[in-house]
Amino acid sequence: MFELFIVNLGQLLYPATLIAMVGGLLVGLFFGALPGLSATMAVALLLPVTFAMEPDVGIATLVATYIGGVTGGLVSATLLRIPGTPSSIATTFDGYPLARAGEATKALATGMVASAIGGLLSLLVLVAFAPTLARFAIRFGAHEFTALTVAALMLVVVLSQANMVKGLLSAALGLAVATVGFAPIGASQRFTFGSIDLAAGIGIVPFMVGLFAISEMIRQVAEPSLRIKPNFDIRGTGIRLAEFIGNGWNMLRSAAIGIIIGVLPGIGGSASNLVAYGAARQASKEPESFGKGNVAGIYASETANNASVGGALLPLITLGIPGDGVTAVLIGGFTIHGLQPGPLLFRNEPDLIGMIYAAFFAATVLLLVIQLLTIRLFPRVLLVPRHLLLPILIVLMVVGTYASGNRLFEVWVMLGFGLVGYGMEKYGFPLGPMVLGFVLGPIFETNLRRAMMFSGGDLMPFITRPISAVLIGFTVLALGYMIYGLFRSRRVRLAGG
Amino acid sequence: MAADRLIGAGFFILGIVMAWASTQIAFPMLGEGDPGPQVLPLALGVLIALLGAMLSLRKPAAEAGGEAPLFDDADTATLIPAETPLMRVVHVVNLVAYAVLFERLGFTLSTFIFLAVAIFLLGARTLRGGIAAVMVAALVSLVVGSGLKLGVGVSLPGVLFG
């Protein structure tokens, strides 16, 4: 696999690929930096633009956008104390105080280097462990995949939100939307109401762009939003080698936390930065300096959030199971380019796997170079006025969505899901489980029906096959934990009168 | 929370309708044990109805007293008030009109109109703001249209210079 990685790295040096990747990185950085916009939106928006590209170029661009989006949050977290994405919440704790003390360059540069280290360490783990996990996953049959999709969905519901009923409803709604159109086996039409447009099903691009991006645009108009007043007095001494070496163990620990949390569905970068920050503070000899501009906090947070990218890609490419919204969009992009993530990918498309690794590596290094070179310039994207940004983003969304199916129907679907997404978030329904339900729905249904046909309608193999039994047991445990949580909160409410 | 009760009732009805509609799906038997294409929608309909009923009937949790502001430093950000209800309606009409006119007028013209109106209404509503809105709208609709069509090969209707 390392040979393929090197070969593909050479392919990335073609000017067209390099330009597309840098474009993806910049779009990702831009979306990550601006509060309200996210890596998920960036990937969803660029998805249709990559249609016309060669598969390897398209995939490299999407991976670069993802990495740029996760890293971009650093800028606003440091300069504004407003994390551009949830992945950078912990960066605000020490990045902003450091910037206020006149060392914004040091805070930004520390975050940039830590992001690159986190990304590269997680890439190493990905390259080392993905083939082993894929070899193990080849033993998965229809029963195991059915159990795996249920377990992944349940874990997302349990871990992502406090309100379990709303989380479950959100997941069920995503699964229900995925049933519209032809059934994946047998081609029976479902919920099409005689419409030819609906017979083709709901496209992933209008669904995702509507849910994540249009809903945010609606919120920006319908609810109060922030007018940013950054302080661009960017100067300082930059990072010191002794500090960097002194934080070696901190970065290793944070990368391990980021990778492990990234592998788990539903939490990813948004939790890993906080956990790693907490661990760094606990392990520090001067925990009282955390929150007052200690660079160890920035090293921990930014290493962990970028390390969770490699963690999240592990189940994505070996099992075909996305862990969160952005990887769900990414899996849609891979599928559009003819790449079917899953255990057979290593056997059927080793070149494209090598391309993902190479793109990951190149994007991380390019990102570091671009960020360090534009450290005084790039933060000015925060000044783009809202009255220009929102309409232009909407145009890009309409164009991208239209291009995904070459029909206006997709645009209407996008606007419809924009309203749905806005309403759901307004009333406390998490969007993550809905997206995963939508993406995992066809995988779940196809494997469930295959499993039932293989076993002649017998459900017992789900608990007699060892891997499936473990996954079912895991799901039951998650469900038990969820019910326990419901009862416990009810008891607390009753006790509190 | 009253909204939860209403939303829960809505989900309950949606679930019932979905469960009933799934029983109407025609399907060929593909083999022994195949539960058919209606089993997932049926199960989902029942689940959505049950969860909707739970949401609607359960005692609402104590509200947390509104969302606490996460970042309160007035030196980095100030709050822009939401658009008035009338302006929200105008923005919706502008967006719907854009979608309706996208294929009829073509990309460049429909995008120009949408952008000019949206940028003017969201920005400073002055003569200067209007001129700036028109100029930005013209520039973006021309650059994005020809850039996507000629540069990336995206198929779009009615692109000037593309």
Describe the structure.
The complex is a heterodimer of chains A (497) and B (162). Chain A is globular. Chain A is built from 22 helices and three strands. Chain A has one domain. Chain A has helices at residues 2-11, 15-33, 39-46, 55-80, 89-100, 104-137, 142-160, 164-178, 196-199, 204-222, 241-246, 248-263, 269-283, 295-319, 325-336, 345-348, 350-373, 386-405, 408-426, 432-454, 461-464, 466-495; strands at 181-182, 189-190, 225-228. In chain A, strand 1 and strand 2 (189-190) form a beta hairpin. Chain A has 497 residues and is mainly alpha-helical. Chain B is mainly α and 162 residues long. In chain B, helix 1 (2-23) packs antiparallel against helix 2 and helix 4 packs antiparallel against helix 5. Chain B has five helices and one strand. Chain B has two domains: 2-27 and 36-57; 85-152, no CATH class. Chain B is 64% helix and 2% strand. At the A-B interface, helix 8, strand 2, strand 3, helix 18 and helix 19 of A face helix 1, helix 2, strand 1, helix 3 and helix 4 of B.
Q: What would a concise description of this structure say?
A:
The complex is a heterodimer of chains A (497) and B (162). With 497 residues, chain A is an all-alpha fold.
Q: What is the gyration radius of chain B calculated from CA atoms?
A: 25 Å
Number of helices of chain A: 22
Count of domain modules of chain B: 2
Radius of gyration of chain A: 22 Å
Oligomeric category: heterodimer
Portion in strands of chain B: under 5%
Terminal residue distance of chain A = 61 Å
Rounded mean pLDDT of chain A is: 85
Task: Please report the number of helical segments of chain B.
Answer: 5
Of all protein chain pairs, which has the greatest interface, and how many residues does each chain bring to it?
Answer: A-B, 73 and 73 residues
Low-confidence stretches of chain B: 63-72
The ordered H/E elements of chain B are HHEHHH
Q: What percentage of the residues of chain A does DSSP assign to strands (E)?
A: under 5%
User: Secondary-structure element order of chain A, as H and E?
Assistant: HHHHHHHHEEHHEHHHHHHHHHHHH
Distance between the termini of chain B: 53 Å
Helix content of chain B: 55-70%
Number of domains of chain A: 1
